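User: Metal-dependent phosphohydrolase, HD subdomain protein, Gandjariella thermophila:
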Amino acid sequence: MTVGVWWVDAVPRVRCVDLMAWAHDVASERLAEALPRRWVHVQGVAERATEVAKLFAEDADLLVAAAVLHDVGYAPELAVTGFHPLDGARFLRTTDAPARLVNLVAHHSCAYREAELRGLSAELAEFTDEETPLRDALWWADMTTGPDGQRLTVHERIAEIQSRYGPDDLVTWFIRQAKPELVAAVERTEARARAAGLVTT
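Assistant: Predicted structure for Metal-dependent phosphohydrolase, HD subdomain protein:
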């Protein structure tokens, strides 16, 4: 996919160059300095997504771009609701990014479960969850990458999130509820990768 960038009122707009390069520029500008650890995680997720991108032919760039941008909503200047999938998707919508990219960011890693706990289900419903193998692959990339970019199993990743946030945090409640769906998406992606002869360990 080819897109490009121009700027309107300090907001990067999409036009005709490389989608992954544009995504990297946007994410790095928002995260690299403000949230360096988050940026390391994002780069690790993008690397994971690249490993299975061959499964998606013409959508390979879309998967990697979504991986690079999945946490952009954590950027302090974008954190309007405090729910990063929603804040990131709303920001990306202002850039005229492809609708599927925006929707993938909005619904990454079972976001609808956390939206329910935050009372933001109606707001998240502005965006469509495509429920495809590509979406599963994005979830897989996020849920097998730790906060410092390290590779983890999905069970290690879920345990790490619970430990990092503590037993009473909303995110811990969310991850417990979402675990069956997250594990299923990871397992489906790993099965597809094995069937295609791709190594993802």
